[in-house]
Amino acid sequence: MPAISMHSRKSILFLPALLALFFLAGCGTSNPICGSSRPKPLIGSLSPSAMDFAQVQQGAVLTIMGSQFVSSSVVVINGQTLSTTVVSSQELQVAITTGLISAPGDLNVFVQTPGGNSGDIGCASGGSSSVLVLTIT
């Protein structure tokens, strides 16, 4: 039986550990390939969560609170992507006008962050938050 040198044993053990680091670790600080990926946004609350149509006619501001917002995160209301001000990683603001809302009703609000890395390398990136409802009376 041929002898295996200590150097060969180290190489054999190193390769599986390296593969596990890149492909099983997923995104985050433990996978250096995913360093530029963007987190999926998390939405927590709307302020206000309800407003009068008269407020909309005057031009209201909706504040979206949550976490993992980045500079490319946008607010989507009833399928329409809005010009979004990123105040911080936990706060976004959008203008609510009659151009967006023409009558009272319930509106679906969520935050979307585009992907920032290739999915080919095992890194999930970006995505959409859950949906909250803004009520216009």
What does the model show?
The protein contains two helices and ten strands. The strands form two sheets. Strands 2, 4, 5, 8, 9 and 10 form a six-stranded mixed sheet that branches. It is an alpha+beta fold and 137 residues long. A hairpin with a 2-residue loop joins strand 4 and strand 5 (80-81). It folds into two domains: 1-35, no CATH class; 36-136, Immunoglobulin-like. The protein has helices at 6-23, 53-58, and strands spanning 42-47, 50-51, 60-67, 74-77, 80-81, 85-88, 91-96, 105-113, 127-128, 132-136.
Provide the fold topology:
Blueprint: H1 6-23, E1 42-47, E2 50-51, H2 53-58, E3 60-67, E4 74-77, E5 80-81, E6 85-88, E7 91-96, E8 105-113, E9 127-128, E10 132-136
Parallel strand pairs: 2-10
Antiparallel strand pairs: 1-3, 3-7, 4-5, 4-8, 6-7, 8-9, 8-10
